[in-house]
Design a protein that fits this description.
The protein is α/β, with parallel strands linked by helices. Strand 1, helix 1 and strand 2 form a beta-alpha-beta unit. It is globular and about 40 Å long.
């Protein structure tokens, strides 16, 4: 989707989300300031790409599953290519949303507010609608405590993938921490560069993580990726706590 009028591009990494991606795209497309919606189909085995295209998104496909960080980088690069056809004063801000938000994606607008206003370099969503994660807490604890040790600040929801960044902030954090370590790495890397991070409460909700063996494998992969991101960032100067604290909705 491309409408040459806004300053926010939505990037949605997605893997096997054919049942929700259409609603997510439609919700994101209606947000204030959004004129580009890109879905990165990260090697899905279902109709994710077709459903995203039918909903109006620009779709980029990975031939195999390459992980969340790679999908985010592919999406940001796709936005840059779409920008080349626009007469713009500057690059888009990048709003990253998960593919399973469904209709609640329409409530993601406040995430872009502080970035668009020049008050933050990155925002992190804090979900007001909490979804039980079935054991997800130990990965959250690892990420939160690791960010605290590295920067002196602990985000409320350190693994939340709903984030808005300036293009400059995104480029400053590249290369991203691989896989599911991307959120942890982004937070540490930007704080260590003196950039401003603000948390924003939003009424978003996504699919709860289950307790079956596939969900346990998923959490294990998350734990390993977050651990690798933290190990890679143990050296270096301490960052500073984010300016402005948590923004109101």
């Amino acid at each position: 989707m491309l409408r040459p009028s806004g300053d926010v591009a939505v990037v949605i990494p997605a893997w096997n989300e054919s049942d929700r991606i259409g609603a997510t795209v439609r919700g994101a497309a209606g947000l204030d300031g959004v004129d580009i919606v890109v879905v990165v189909d990260d090697g899905s085995g279902d109709a994710t790409a077709a459903a995203a295209e039918a909903a109006g998104a620009s779709v980029v496909r990975h031939g195999r599953n390459r992980g969340k960080a790679a999908a985010m980088q592919t999406g940001a690069d796709a936005v840059r290519r779409l920008e080349a056809g626009q007469n713009r004063p500057g690059p888009h801000h990048l709003l990253f949303l998960d593919g399973d938000l469904g209709e609640t994606a329409a409530a993601a607008g406040p995430l872009a507010g502080p970035v668009r206003a020049g008050q933050a370099d990155m925002t992190i969503a804090v979900f007001s609608n909490r979804v039980r994660q079935g054991g997800h807490g130990f990965v959250v604890a690892l990420s939160g405590s690791g960010i605290m040790r590295a920067t002196g600040w602990r985000p409320a929801q350190p693994l939340n993938g709903q984030r808005c960044l300036t293009r400059a902030a995104f480029e400053a954090a590249r290369p991203l921490a691989p896989g599911f370590g991307v959120e942890t790495g982004l937070t540490i890397d930007l704080l260590r560069r003196g950039m401003r991070i603000t948390e924003v409460e939003v009424p978003l909700a996504h699919r709860a993580t289950g307790r079956d063996w596939r969900s346990q494998v998923h959490r294990g992969r998350q734990f390993l990726d977050v651990g690798r991101a933290l190990v890679a960032r143990r050296a270096g100067p301490r960052g500073r706590a984010p300016a402005g604290g948590r923004a109101a909705r």
